[in-house]
Design a protein that fits this description.
single chain; about 450 residues; Rossmann fold; 12 helices; binds adenosine-5'-diphosphate; binds magnesium ion; binds zinc ion
């Protein structure tokens, strides 16, 4: 067998003959790593290169039959919701996240639920049988139908799948497995690509539900090639704020459902618990007392409105340059809102430090938070407490104008359910108004309206 060395970008999988500081394909710096590439010898049996065995006659779409895939529920509420109702036979899911975030924990819990009806094979290249069983004990899982195997050689993993013939396969993690025919070390592009395609070829035709776990780098990118994301049906990212017990699971790609949903979990000693009532979790200060600098809003995560508590602190600065700090919301968006407040309602912010934060350690991007940020800043700056039975939800533009946000009815319904009485929002049409809940809607055209109503 002939060997040839190539330089492979660890981010995108681009192959170059010579080393370069910057990947010519994806532009990443310092990502090219020398790998030995095997020339395929002519005698070696050719393996199929395709991932799926789809091959059909040509038919008209109108004459083709739709297949509704039955969903296999894990009975972990947030996980099922996020997947679009459950798992589909043969589904290959990549679960990525930083070390220690709870990937193995979640998978063991999923395995426990699925093993009630299905046979599960859990392969670990990260932990020993003893460690896994220790975790299972802590989580209260007995796992009669869960088979454990500690292995990193993909060929042995394939054998073990053929021997056990499971319905569900969990591989923890893709970065630890290697293909013995490839000389590069585990975790490199060549290995990750080859091992994943081996799994796809093995599991897809058998309809095995497969989970592949993967690490992410410090920047939150998948360690290993992006091509991994193309090879799987579903990519889930596990995410959290630092030192927070809350875990967010976000779909990055989902062939069988929407990617707009998130799953919320709380890490406890007994494993991950679904947080179904997100609103009550995020609003942290007591609503009975009026607080200066606090405004409530209902932000959407996917299609779900979540009660969000925006906190602002405006205080005289001691530095030549005032400080502007935003936690949980986009700082640039906040800077724009501060400028709009100064310009349009003459709010004196130029020699003030401003801190804006979302309670509960969430990060949200919903523009509906704009109005709540403005209200909280006005409240802190002018030392007036906002009415504690009110929510603020509208987008604010650079001209100070207040604009509508999508799904206002759903947000108002949730606000009403949580006991709020009034909502500050952009003007709605008459027909829209008829559909709205019984809450009092205070319609605003611009920031001036807001200032007039609050002060
Ligand atoms: N005895 C324990 N009590 C409570 N939480 C624990 C305990 N042991 C581990 N954990 C939690 O589990 C996390 C590790 O989860 P794990 O599933 O191993 O993460 P990953 O597989 O993503 O690296 C730890 O960060 C910690 O939050
Ligand atoms: Mg782990
Ligand atoms: Zn690249």
């Amino acid at each position: 067998m002939k060997f040839k060395t190539v330089f492979v970008c660890q981010k995108c999988g681009f192959e170059a003959a010579k080393w370069a500081g910057k990947c010519p394909d994806c532009g990443e710096w310092n990502s090219l790593v020398e790998e030995v590439k095997q020339q395929e010898s002519k005698k070696a049996p050719t393996r199929t290169r395709s991932f799926t065995d789809f091959s059909s006659e040509i038919v008209k779409l109108s004459e083709s039959k739709a297949v509704k895939e039955p969903r296999i529920e894990t009975h972990i509420g947030e996980f099922d919701r996020l997947l679009g109702g459950g798992l589909v036979k043969g589904q290959l899911t990549l679960l990525a996240g930083a070390p220690g975030i709870g990937k193995s924990t979640l998978m063991l819990q999923v395995a426990a639920e699925l093993s009630k009806n299905l046979k599960v094979l859990y392969i670990s290249g990260e932990e020993s049988i003893g460690q896994i069983s220790g975790r299972a004990q802590r989580l209260g899982i007995n796992g009669d139908n869960i088979f454990l195997h500690c292995e990193t050689d993909i060929q042995k993993i394939v054998e073990s799948v053929q021997n056990v013939s499971p319905d569900v396969l969990i591989l923890d993690s893709i970065q630890t497995v290697y293909h013995p025919e490839f000389t590069s070390s585990a975790g490199t592009v060549a290995q990750v690509r080859e091992c994943t395609s081996e799994l796809v070829r093995l599991c897809k035709p058998k309809g095995i539900i497969t989970f592949v776990l993967g690490h992410v780098t410090k920047d939150g990118e998948l360690a290993g090639p992006k091509i991994l994301e193309h090879m799987v049906d579903c990519v889930l990212y596990f995410d959290t704020e630092k030192d927070n017990v809350l875990r967010l699971l976000r779909p990055h790609k989902n062939r069988f459902g929407s990617t707009g949903e998130i799953g919320l979990f709380k890490m406890t000693g007994h494993g991950l618990e679904s947080v179904e009532n997100a609103s009550e979790y995020f609003a942290q200060t007591s609503r009975q007392h009026a607080l200066k600098g606090r405004a409530y809003s209902l932000a959407l995560e996917g299609s779900r409105p979540i009660l969000t508590e925006v906190q602002a602190l405006v205080s005289p600065t001691r530095y030549p340059f005032p400080r502007r700090v935003a936690t949980g919301v986009d700082l640039n968006r906040c800077l724009m809102l501060f400028a709009a407040l100064e310009k349009h309602i003459n709010l004196p912010l130029d020699n003030k430090d401003i801190f804006v934060s979302l309670a509960g350690g969430v990060k949200l991007k919903d523009p509906a938070l704009d109005l709540a940020v403005c209200a909280a800043v006005i409240s802190s700056c002018k030392e007036i407490a906002l009415p504690h039975d009110s929510v603020f939800m509208a987008e604010v533009g650079i001209l100070g104008q207040v604009a509508k946000v999508p799904l206002i009815e759903r947000r108002l319904d949730e606000a009403q359910r949580l006991g709020f009485k009034k909502a500050y929002a952009a003007a709605v049409t008459k027909t829209e108004k008829q559909k709205l809940s019984k809450m009092t809607l205070l319609e605003l055209a611009d920031l001036n309206d807001l200032a007039l109503k609050l002060c």
